[in-house]
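Long-time lurker, first post. I've been practising inverse folding by hand and with some scripts of my own, and I keep getting stuck on stretches where the structure tokens seem ambiguous. Below is the full token string for one chain I'm working on. Before anyone asks, I'm not after the true native sequence, just a reasonable design that respects the backbone. If someone could post their per-position residues I'd love to compare against what I wrote down in my notebook.
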């Protein structure tokens, strides 16, 4: 029997990057997966890959900052697959700029997607989890939570998610719900490719520079995050809650 047989997972921002890898890994471990992204069509390739590997998944279009859409997505997971056991708050955006150039809109967008999005999705999911006295929530933080030039908005959101994680762990622990965060370092995705573009270098150059100053001498791949999350949502980690695990090859900043 696979670790997540019979479980149902909702992964936000799962059309690509880390979210797609997490969705694929949880499905490979036996979970039925709701692949949530802004655009339902964008989630279809993730679903197709899961189905091709023998797993079960559906794509759902929803904006995590919209309470009605997120609640409908969580309820749909339970209707389609019979429960909602696992939530991975992964949807994310960056709007980098130095403080004096950072617009109010870019502040609101980043805080909105990461913090309000995780709040709304967790609130929608906990209804199912508390009722069944079982659940696992994982929030995507970042090494940028510790401070990163040009990312005041993103850094604040990612450190905010660590406090959010600890508080939900306290509130939901008595109901059988574990809540943890994963804080990735440099992971090769479109998000880091966009960072390279802003710096005027290629994604490969940025990855090479990052690898050089990372103790394990490589950058991370989405699968590195997916395997950590697979552990945190399994029953192997049921005494771990309220934690933030840095998955960064040993490089904090
Ligand atoms: P990515 O490749 O940019 O993927 C993010 C996904 O989230 C996209 O599919 C995006 O959809 C979706 N999304 C954005 N806003 C959304 C919303 N309002 N509602 C629903 N979906 C939304 O990013 P990634 O690199 O895989 O990062 C995933 C998570 O890990 C993020 O929370 C990120 O902050 C965190 N993280 C990443 C790294 C890294 O090095 N890559 C490091 C630390 C933390 P669209 O394509 O339609 O915008």
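-- Answer (accepted) --
I ran through it position by position. Result:
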């Amino acid at each position: 029997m696979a670790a997540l047989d019979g479980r149902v997972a909702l992964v936000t921002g799962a059309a690509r990057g880390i979210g797609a890898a997490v969705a694929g890994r949880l499905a490979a471990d036996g979970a039925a997966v709701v692949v949530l992204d802004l655009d339902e069509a964008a989630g279809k390739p993730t679903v197709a890959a899961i189905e091709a590997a023998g797993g079960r998944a559906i794509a759902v279009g929803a904006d995590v900052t919209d309470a009605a859409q997120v609640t409908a997505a969580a309820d749909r997971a339970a209707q389609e697959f019979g429960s909602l056991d696992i939530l991975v708050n992964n949807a994310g955006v960056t709007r980098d700029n130095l403080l004096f150039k950072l617009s109010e809109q870019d502040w609101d967008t980043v805080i909105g997607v990461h913090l309000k999005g995780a709040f709304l999705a967790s609130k929608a999911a906990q209804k199912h989890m508390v009722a069944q006295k079982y659940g696992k929530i994982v929030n995507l933080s970042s090494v940028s939570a510790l401070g990163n030039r040009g990312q005041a908005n993103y850094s604040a959101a990612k450190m905010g998610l660590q406090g959010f994680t600890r508080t939900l762990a306290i509130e939901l622990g008595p109901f059988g719900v574990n809540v943890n965060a994963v804080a990735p370092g440099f992971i090769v995705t479109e998000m880091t490719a966009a960072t390279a573009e802003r710096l005027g270098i290629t994604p490969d150059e940025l990855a090479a520079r990052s690898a050089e100053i990372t103790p394990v001498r490589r950058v991370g791949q989405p699968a590195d995050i997916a395997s950590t999350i697979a552990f945190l949502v399994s029953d192997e980690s049921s005494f771990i809650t309220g934690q933030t695990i840095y998955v960064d090859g040993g490089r904090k900043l």
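A couple of notes from the structure itself: The pocket of NAP is lined by residues 12-13, 15-19, 37-39, 42, 63-65, 90-93, 113, 117, 140, 142, 184, 186-187, 189-192 (CB under 6 Å). The two ends are 40 Å apart (CA to CA). Happy to go over any region you disagree with.
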